[in-house]
Specification:
Its EC number is 2.1.1.320. Helix content is 35%, strand content 24%. It is built from 16 helices and 19 strands. The chain is globular and about 60 Å long. The N terminus is likely disordered. The structure holds S-adenosylmethionine.
Length: 429
C-alpha cells in the first residue's frame, strides 16, 4: 500500500485520552455472541457492526483496541475486508503486487532459489497469508509453472474474507467451489491443474514442507496499545461517548489481562512509553515457526514496519488518505506497523528459527535482479506498456517511498543455520 508515513500525524492518537470510569455491567451472552461465529442455520438478524460494537461497550465496558480493530476489519456484515474490493487506484490503497508484475515474479525467483538450495523437497506447498486479490500468487504460479514445477505444487490460501476469496478464485482458478470440509472452505484448480485450497486459519493448513508468503498481512492483524502513564503501564481502550456520538480512546484504570501478558514479554531495556502488541500476530508466528520446524519450509514476510523503534502507529486509510481510525468503523482500512524486533523474538524462541532482515524492499528487489528483469520486460512491450512498467518498478524501489518503507524479512528452521551461514538467503547476503 502506498501509505504515507507522516510520523507527526501518528501522534494524534495519543492526545485527549481520559481514564475509563465506566461501570462494568454483566454481559448478556446472547447480545455479545460474535456473529462471525454464529451457526450457519441461525437465521436471526445480525446486528450491524456499529450496533455490535456499541452493545459490547455498553454491557462490558470499553473494548481493547484489538477487539475494535478486529471487528472493524473482519466483522461478517460491514467489516472492512468482508464485502468489498478495497484495492487499487479506485480503492483505498494499492499494494506492490497490484502496481507491477515484477514484484510477484521476483518473489517467485526468490522462493525457487531457496527451495533449490535446500534440496528441492517435493511435494511443495505454497502458502499465502492474506492474499488480497490473489495478484501476487498469480504471478508466482506463472513463474513456477514456467520452471516445470506445476506437477509437484499445491497452493494454500489463508483468507478470512468471503468476498476476497471469491476474487482470488476468479483470478487463480479455471474452476472452484465451496466445500463442506471442516478445514478448507473452498477449493479449485488453476488452468494448469494446480490445486488451490482456502482456509480461515493457519492452524488448518495441511502438514508438509511449505513456503509461506505474507505480503501486507501482519499489519492488518489487531493490535493492543499500551501507554506509560505516571510511571505505570496501562492499556488503551476504545469507548463510545454517547453525548458526542463518537468512539474515543480511554486509558484503562487498572491492569487488564492483556497488559499482564504483555508485561511478561516486555524487554527491560525498551525505553519507549507507548507500545503496540499483536497477540493474534504472536499466535500466528508461534504456530508458523512450530510448523516450519516440524515439517520443513521457510517464510518470506514483506510489510511496512520497524525494528523496535516506533510507538503509536495505529491508523486508518480511506481513498489513499490517512484519517482518524475511530471514525466510522468498517469504512476505512485499519493498520499498524509491524514490529520486526518482536517478530524475531517470537520465532527465535527455543532456537526454533533463524531470521534474516528486515531489509529495505529496494535492496531486496535490486539484489534479485529487478533492474535486469525490467529491461527484459521492456524489450517486448509496447511504448505505453514500457512507461507503465518502468514507473511501476521505480515506485517500488523509490528510496523515499515504498523502496524504504517496505521491509523484507525471512525465517528458516535453525537446523539450516550452518548451511545458511555459508549460503545466506538471496537478497539478504
Ligand atoms: C492489506 S491486505 C493485503 C492483501 C495482499 N497480500 C496484497 O498485498 O495485495 C490484507 C489481507 O489479509 C486478509 N486478512 C486480514 N486479516 C486476516 C486474518 N485474521 N486471517 C486471514 N486473512 C486476513 C485480508 O482479507 C486481506 O486479504
Amino acid at each position: 500500500m502506498s501509505k504515507q508515513f507522516l510520523s507527526s500525524i501518528f501522534s494524534f492518537n495519543q492526545s485527549f485520552r481520559r481514564f475509563s470510569y465506566k461501570q462494568v455491567k454483566r454481559p448478556s451472552l446472547n447480545q455479545l455472541k460474535d456473529p462471525n461465529e454464529k451457526a450457519a442455520n441461525d437465521k436471526r438478524p445480525k446486528p450491524t457492526l456499529n450496533e455490535y460494537l456499541r452493545a459490547k461497550i455498553s454491557s462490558i465496558g470499553p473494548l481493547t483496541v484489538a477487539e475494535y480493530m478486529k471487528a472493524s476489519l473482519t466483522y461478517c456484515d460491514g467489516g472492512y475486508y468482508m464485502n468489498k474490493d478495497v484495492f487499487g487506484r479506485k480503492g483505498d490503497f494499492i499494494t506492490s503486487p497490484e502496481i507491477t508484475q515484477i514484484f510477484g515474479e521476483l518473489v517467485a525467483i526468490w522462493l525457487l532459489h531457496e527451495w533449490q538450495k535446500v534440496g528441492s523437497p517435493s511435494p511443495l506447498q505454497i502458502v499465502e497469508l492474506g492474499p488480497g486479490r490473489g495478484t501476487m500468487m498469480h504471478d508466482v504460479i506463472r513463474v513456477l509453472s514456467r520452471f516445470g514445477l506445476k506437477d509437484l505444487l499445491s497452493v494454500h490460501l489463508v483468507e478470512v474474507s468471503p468476498h476476497l476469496s471469491e476474487l482470488q478464485a476468479k483470478r487463480l482458478c479455471q474452476s472452484s467451489e465451496p466445500t463442506k470440509d471442516e478445514r478448507y472452505y473452498h477449493m479449485g484448480e488453476t488452468s494448469s491443474n494446480i490445486p488451490v485450497l482456502w482456509y480461515k486459519r493457519i492452524e488448518d493448513l495441511p502438514n508438509g514442507f511449505s513456503i509461506v508468503l505474507a505480503h501486507e498481512f501482519f499489519d492488518a492483524l489487531p493490535i493492543h496499545k499500551f501507554q506509560k502513564t505516571d510511571g505505570k503501564w496501562r492499556e488503551i481502550l476504545v469507548d463510545y461517548n454517547v453525548d458526542a456520538k463518537k468512539y474515543e480512546f480511554v486509558v484503562a484504570r487498572k491492569e487488564t489481562p492483556m497488559l499482564k501478558l504483555f508485561l511478561s514479554h516486555l524487554d527491560l531495556d525498551d525505553e519507549r512509553e507507548h507500545l503496540e502488541y499483536s497477540a493474534e500476530g504472536h499466535q500466528i508466528l508461534e504456530h508458523l515457526s512450530l510448523r516450519l520446524e516440524q515439517f520443513g519450509g521457510f517464510s518470506l514476510v514483506i510489510d511496512y514496519g520497524h525494528d523496535g523503534t516506533m510507538t503509536d502507529t495505529f491508523r486508518a486509510f480511506k481513498n489513499h488518505e490517512q484519517r482518524d481510525p475511530l471514525m466510522e468503523p468498517g469504512s476505512a482500512d485499519l493498520t499498524a506497523n509491524v514490529d520486526f524486533k518482536q517478530m524475531r523474538k517470537y520465532v527465535g524462541k527455543n532456537d526454533r528459527m533463524i531470521t534474516f532482515g528486515p531489509i529495505k524492499q529496494l535492496d531486496f528487489m535490486k539484489k534479485l535482479g529487478g533492474d535486469v528483469r525490467i529491461e527484459r520486460l521492456k524489450e517486448s512491450a509496447t511504448p505505453d506498456l514500457i512507461s507503465q512498467l518502468q514507473s511501476g518498478y521505480d515506485k517500488l524501489i523509490d528510496p523515499n517511498d515504498m523502496g524504504s518503507i517496505y521491509k523484507v524479512f525471512s525465517m528458516f528452521p535453525s537446523v539450516l543455520r550452518k548451511h545458511l551461514s555459508k549460503f545466506p538467503p538471496t537478497g539478504f547476503d
